Amino acid sequence: MDRFGELKLKYQSVLNLIQQKGVRLAHLHVQDNKLVIQGAAPSQEVKNAVWNQIKLVDKSFGDLSCDLSVDESLAAPAPKAPAAAPPAAKVRSYTVKAGDSLWKIAKTYYGNGTLYPKIIAGNPGRLKDDKTVIHPGDVLVIPE
After folding, report:
1. What are the angstrom distances between the C-alpha of 91 and each of 32, 53, 96, 140, 142?
2. Which terminus of the chain is less hemmed in, N or C, by CB atoms within 10 Å?
3. Per-residue pLDDT tens over the stretch 12-50
């Protein structure tokens, strides 16, 4: 695997969050052996959430350069009539260890191994189905 693919895999949960929160990416590439993420977030809150996810993946983030500005014009327009929105799901990540399986991870986080499809659904770029092989060091998003 090339360095770009390796770093994208490591920071997949960050990239998933960026996509979910409507961050507009201007650049995503490797430079000086670091993954470079440049773009604009729709709010300071989203920018902070991205940084919190980066720190969950790697507190030192020595192999990452992230430069996000805030562009409030990217925020979705407010609805005309107030509607009850579902609570935002918390984003957690998990680094796969030797001997792990999706079943085992689901049992740990949800108390029931049969809920492993939630993990597959939370990692669309990484997991295709229950036959997808996971490896030690893979970082998975664990949805609520």
Report:
1. 29, 8, 16, 10, 7
2. N
3. 999 999 999 999 988 989 999 999 999 999 999 999 999
